[in-house]
Amino acid sequence: MDFTREGSPWPFCCAMYGATMLSAVTQYIASTDGKDVYLNFFYPAKAELALDGGLVKLDLETQYPADGKLLVTVGPAQALFALKVRVPEWSKIVSVAVDGQKVADPEIQAGYLVLERLWTAGAKVAIELAMPLRTEKRTQFIGDDSQTDY
Questions:
Q1: How many angstroms separate the CA atoms of 1 and 4, rounded?
Q2: Rounded Cα distance, 130 and 146, in Å
Q3: Is the pLDDT of residue 2 over 70?
Q4: Reduced to 3 states, what is the DSSP secondary structure of residue 101?
Q5: Which residues, 6+ apart, have CB-to-CB distance to 74 below 8 Å?
Q6: How far from chain centre, in Å, is Cα 107?
Q7: How confident is the model at residue 1 (pLDDT cuts 50, 70, 90)?
Q8: What is the rounded CA–CA span in Å between residue 104 and residue 97?
C-alpha cells in the first residue's frame, strides 16, 4: 500500500485490513511460479502446489520461532524444481541436509536458500536457521515520536 491516512503515519487505512491480511497469510506459506517452489513463512503446514511438471506436496514441520529448525517433506512423486526457502535478513543458515546428506555450501539467491534437484517422493529437507537475540532500532513508527498514533 502506498498511501497514508490523513493525520496518521501508519501506511494503512482501517483496522479491518489487519484481520483480512492475517487470514490471507496462509496462502503465502508456500507458493509457486509454476517452475520453482517458495517456502516463505515458517508455520506447520501442508501445501499442494501445481508446477509445470505436475503436483508437488510439501509438509512443513517446525516450532519456529521457538527454534530455527525446519523439516520439509516433499511428495508425492518425482519432480525437477528448485525449493527456495526464505532466509530472514537477520538470520543465517546453521545447517542444511537433504535425506540426511549435509549440503556443504548452501546456495543463497536474493534472500532464499536454493535447493534445485530431481526430488523423489518422501525426500526430507532439514534446515536449521540461527535465532540470534536482536533488537530493532526505534523509529517514528516504533515508540520514538510523541505524535505517533497508537
A1: 9
A2: 35
A3: no
A4: strand
A5: 56, 57, 58, 83, 119, 120, 121, 122, 123, 124, 125
A6: 16
A7: very low
A8: 9
